[in-house]
Design goal:
Mean pLDDT: 82
Oligomer: single chain
Number of helices: 22
CATH class of the largest domain: Alpha Beta
Radius of gyration: 28 Å
Strand content: 5-15%
Number of strands: 8
Strand order of the largest sheet: 5-6-7-4-8
Number of domains: 4
């Protein structure tokens, strides 16, 4: 290669750089080497067959157009695998390795694994999150996290990203809410920039897609993510996904995408129990450098027993009330500030009332439902009882299990998933759930 030809190649690279994002250029062209130009043929050497196939499919036109702008003719570009495209010089490689990649702009610095309060409701999910961040692309790939709204899915996904970047500096991370993924795809299609859109996600070492249920019935978006998933998984790069329910229960997702999402590990974030709610409140108060009396925190924990988001909202309301009224946080002030929470209909039927209604409907004794014996006649009614308690109370799975013969949270979760499936297939089960809910003067939330 003459100095002149090298200079011309650098001019061509400069043109290519203008049309691509920095991450795309660094990923696909940093290790491309110019070898020769004979007639109207341009021979480029790349490090491996994957590079050659990818550049041939996605960037041939980009190179041809750059050459035409610099040299005035459109060449035939040929990519070949060869040793000339070996790793960069050791000095450059070392510099690249120690320079951490900037975090995606959507990440919230507060969402770290260390700030994720762990309890029985989320212990497995937190352990799995740490595992995939530290040892990505091995056992749990993909990791699928599901829960009701406001239980910490976004916190956990972003915490995985931060932990991954700490353990693997310099590696590219792509965190994206599903709605943003859809918007970016539409924009890329409108501006004929699909290559850049695809490269951004397919070149990531870890991709986290938040709220995949928002891709339901969006065939184009599902198709794009399906191919991103396949590319990353085949290269043993980590995929983490969240949704409001297990993938097989998300209506409007394609069967093949659902199948892929079930290849790895599915973990659930349950409603926090009283002990975990109290720990969350302590952490939130400490983050604001505020001392809140223990009895006040306990009061808040018993009043706001829905999602973690509800819990934080109650604490913020109390602290704002204290600040605006220029009063010290106390039990009296807490009762006043959270009067709206205290006056909510006691509402939800208790687990005891639910089990009474289930026993009446099926002609059983309540003792049969809570018995540890595995009576076949009580299996379906017991599962219906746990399902209704899950949807009509704010108790965690573990707390529900205590009312049903001391069963653990995994048994309750299994019962809920079992009834959800049988409701869709068996009219008699759906009718039983509906009639018992009506007897309790309650409706099962839509989509459950």
């Amino acid at each position: 290669m003459t100095v002149q030809s090298d200079e011309r190649w650098q001019d061509i690279l400069a043109e290519i750089r203008k049309t691509l994002r920095k991450q795309q250029y660094d990923t696909w062209f940093r290790r491309v080497r110019f070898i020769s130009s004979g007639g109207e043929e341009l021979l480029l050497i790349v490090p491996n067959r994957f590079y050659a196939d990818w550049l041939e499919t996605n960037y041939r036109t980009t190179v041809e157009e750059a050459v035409q702008r610099v040299l005035g003719f459109k060449p035939y570009v040929r990519f070949e695998v060869g040793p000339e495209a070996a790793e960069p010089a050791e000095e450059a490689k070392t510099a690249l390795e120690v320079q951490p990649a900037p975090p995606p702009p959507q990440l919230n610095k507060v969402y770290q694994l260390d700030t994720f309060v762990v309890g029985n409701c989320n212990r497995l999910a937190q352990a799995a999150a740490r595992s995939v961040a530290e040892c990505p692309g091995t056992v749990y790939n993909p990791l699928f996290v599901h829960s009701d709204l406001g239980m910490g899915k976004t916190h956990l996904l972003q915490a995985v990203c931060y932990r991954f970047m700490a353990c693997h500096p310099g590696e590219a991370v792509a965190y994206v809410p599903a709605q943003q993924f859809v918007m970016e795809l539409v924009e890329a299609q409108e501006h004929k920039a699909l290559e850049g859109f695809r490269a951004r996600y397919r070149s990531a070492s870890l991709m986290a897609l938040d709220d995949i249920h928002l891709l339901a019935d969006r065939e184009n978006s599902q198709e794009e993510f399906f191919h991103v998933f396949n590319e990353l998984h085949s290269q043993k790069r980590q995929v983490v996904v969240s949704g409001d329910r297990p993938p097989q229960e998300i209506r409007g997702l394609s069967e093949r995408l659902t199948s892929r999402l079930r290849w790895g590990l599915l973990v659930n974030l349950d409603r926090p129990d009283t002990e975990t709610r109290l720990a969350i409140l302590r952490q939130k108060a400490a983050a604001r450098r505020l001392k809140v009396p223990k009895d006040v925190l306990e009061y808040v924990a018993t009043r706001a027993h829905g999602s973690i988001r509800d819990l934080e909202a109650a604490l913020v309301r109390l602290l704002a009330f204290a600040s605006l009224s220029e009063k010290t946080v106390s039990m009296a002030l807490a009762r006043e500030a959270l009067a709206a929470y205290a006056s909510k209909p006691a509402a939800a039927p208790t687990v005891t009332k639910i089990l009474d209604a289930v026993a009446t409907h099926f002609g059983l004794r309540k003792a049969d439902l809570v018995s540890k014996k595995r009576s076949r006649s009580a299996t379906l009614p017991r599962q219906v009882g746990m399902y209704l308690a899950r949807h009509l109370t704010s108790l965690s799975l573990g707390e529900i299990g205590k009312y049903v013969g001391g069963r653990d949270h995994t048994t309750v979760l299994y019962a809920c998933e079992k009834i959800e499936k049988r409701k869709d297939k068996e009219a008699s089960v759906a009718r039983a759930v509906e009639e018992i809910a009506k007897a309790l003067d309650r409706d099962i939330p839509c989509g459950h």
